[in-house]
Amino acid sequence: MNANLDRIMHMRIKRTMKALEKNNMKALYVPSRAELLALMNTLLVPGETIGIGGSVTAVESGVVELLRSGKYNFLDREAPGISKEENARLRRQALLSDTFITSSNAVTETGNLYNVDGQSNRVACMLFGPERVIVIAGQNKIVPDLAHAVVRVKETAAPANCVRLDCDTFCAKNGRCMRPVCDPSDLMSVPAGACENSICCNSVIMGRQRNKDRIIVIIVGEDLGF
Predict the structure, then answer these.
(1) Residues 74, 68: contact at Cβ < 8 Å?
(2) Which residue, among 35, 25, 29, has the nearest Cα to 219 in the 3D structure?
(3) What pLDDT was estimated at residue 1?
(4) Of 25, 40, 51, 184, which shows the fewest CB atoms inside 10 Å?
(5) CA pair distance 28, 194, nearest whole angstrom
(6) What is the pLDDT of residues 171-184, one digit of tens each?
(7) How is the chain split into domains, by residue range?
(8) Fold assignment, 3-143+207-220
(9) Which tens digits make up the pLDDT trace of 10-31?
(10) 3-state DSSP assignment of residue 148
């Protein structure tokens, strides 16, 4: 990254971390995925039960490979050859995990996590159940505010995930949501029933937390996921 843009990005990261801390979420920063893995080794406890949400970030960063090392009781819902029934069981079991690892569709500079889910097992675990939640977010996930977070999901996260999951949706075919704008009065801003196979079923805004530091947000100084 250009040194000037890099400096601006670090200002945004610093501002975001300060806002997350004010919302009782622990904010950590690592400059690269290599440092991320070193940090994860210090945060995770051998033998603990670890659940995971569907996360391209966790795969790209090498975190999934770390979890498969055998040191943890990893609820590996994407293990090779796993059945649909076992996958569903592990999703439910993740609600009782010691640590749940996921990413976020967007992290706002105002200290919010914004996520949109289809099955919603990911957001369910982020909200309640696991003793702690580790959110890994590349610097590309940072947006100024919730309006930009919504647009980010519509223009980037949802279309890319629908292509990845081979979903028959408007955004998978056209590269953007059928309504790629944010209506402040309706954050989803898609007419009811308009997207029949939508993965954008439930949207969650996480703000100030009552359980301080249950949510740990690790911002990585690289682009990860989408």
Answers:
(1) yes
(2) 29
(3) 66
(4) 184
(5) 39
(6) 999 999 998 888 87
(7) 3-143+207-220
(8) Rossmann fold (3.40.50)
(9) 999 999 999 999 999 999 999 9
(10) helix
Give the sign of the dihedral formed by CA 121, CA 123, CA 128, CA 129.
positive
Q: In a 10 Å sphere around its CB, with 0-12 CB exposed, 13-18 middle and 19+ buried, how is residue 160 labelled?
A: middle
DSSP codes joined into one string, 27-60:
EEEESSHHHHHHHHHHHS-TT-EEEE---HHHHH
Rg (CA), the chain: 17
Q: State residue 34 phi and psi, 5-degree precision.
A: -65, -45
Query: What's the rounded Cα separation, in Å, for the pair 216 and 136?
Result: 8
Tell me which residue has tokens 């210090």. 42
pTM: 0.94
- CB count within 10 Å of CB 111 equals 22
